[in-house]
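ligand=iron/sulfur cluster
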Amino acid sequence: MQSIPPGPPLRVVLGSPRGFCAGVERAIETVERALIMHGAPVYVRHEIVHNARVCAELREKGAIFVEDLADVPPRSVLIYSAHGVPISVETAADAAGHRVIDATCPLVAKVHKNGRRYAAEGRQVILIGHRGHVEVEGTLGQVEAEVATVASVAEVEALPFPCDARIAYITQTTLSVSDTRAVIEAIAARWPDTVGPETRDICYATQNRQEAVRAIAADVELILIVGARNSSNSNRLVEIAAAAGCAAHLVPEPGDLDPAWLEGVTRLGISAGASAPESLVRETVARLAAWREITVETREGVREDIAFRLPRTVDDAAMDTHLCNAPPISRAAG
Ligand code: SF4
């Protein structure tokens, strides 16, 4: 057992909203329902959401996560993760005879739809996002036209399109309005004929979680963001806390907490990325309580009441009875 030097009492402020968004809830429930309906194994293309704890629990129930469809036996049950997939994956899945359940977040699917519409209108589509992220790869593969990807104003300035080009932009969902504002302004300044999605198409969960972190950053000396290392939105929350002048660390698991971070700290903020279960937040707080005398309060932010309908193939009211008897996954467990 690690020996921790005693410190002064610690005031812990929890950001809100934090943790699971409607798209993540929907994706996890889709896998749980598919397991009940079809039995194990069910295959999931990519981690259903970017969180090791969630995936481990689903793995125990019979989910198998794959990156390459070549690892899926023909005619299997195959679920697409919340991040979405390129058309090439859909085509390969059809060719292999898989029974596909699409858990792509409806907000990601909306980005795909907008990208296709703009391309069909003959516009040059620019995707604001990070190359290599699975959602970005999925979006690029859903728009059957050449799409430019940019992540900064400098990258906008380097694009080769003439000043009279007809441009349309779309954005990676884990970037907020404030993340993309400067890039969008640079696009609109360079190409007057630019269109983009309506504000309401932007992911509410990304925006709300970022605002919640900004709201507590002014009052604390350190912020811990519970979330996986490969979670784009969790890493953004760390960056946002740091940009607000607060020391910040990502905490994938409570065991990753480093007591050295707490030296001299008396006011600590905690929040969580959209794919992190609340159980991880509770365990993080419990670990702190084992080290220091703590008080915990929540800084209430925007109230969220958004829920997405499940994919039609698993959205069966009759399933509710079975789910009541199923062991809960960690979003509900303490
Ligand atoms: Fe959907 Fe937004 Fe959640 Fe991503 S963060 S899964 S886009 S609701």
